[in-house]
Amino acid sequence: MTRLEQLEQTIAALPVDEYRQLRDWIIERDWEAWDRQIEADSASGKLDFLLKEADEEKLLSESSKRLAELGGTEKELVQVSRRKSSLKKK
């Protein structure tokens, strides 16, 4: 019997309360590993593209809103919308 099979049998035999505690511990451990990975990716610059996309979207959204407030024409609003789409493709 492999070590994994032994663990599976042991886990299957746990009382419900202990099983829940084990499950919660495993879930927490996974989240901590995920957090470390995100922090490492952020520190290395791998996520910089997300910040750039968010900044571009915010700028275009604000432009669209401002244009609408100023009574922009439908044609102008369509042009802003097209710029949004073209930026997303980059």
Provide an overview of this structure:
With about 90 residues, the protein is mainly α. It has two domains: about 5-45; about 50-90. About 85% of the residues lie in helices and about 0% in strands. It has four helices and no strands. It has helices at about 5-10, 15-45, 50-70, 75-90. α3 (about 50-70) runs antiparallel to α4 (about 75-90). The longest helix has 29 residues, at about 15-45. The model has no long low-confidence stretch (mean pLDDT about 85).
Beta strands, count = 0
Could you list the spans in which at least 5 consecutive residues all have pLDDT below 50? none
Helices and strands, in order, run as HHHH
Number of domains: 2
Round the Cα radius of gyration to an integer and report it: 25 Å
Number of helices: 4
Largest sheet: none
The helicity comes to over 70%
Question: What descriptive keywords fit this protein?
Answer:
mainly alpha, single chain, 90 residues, 4 helices
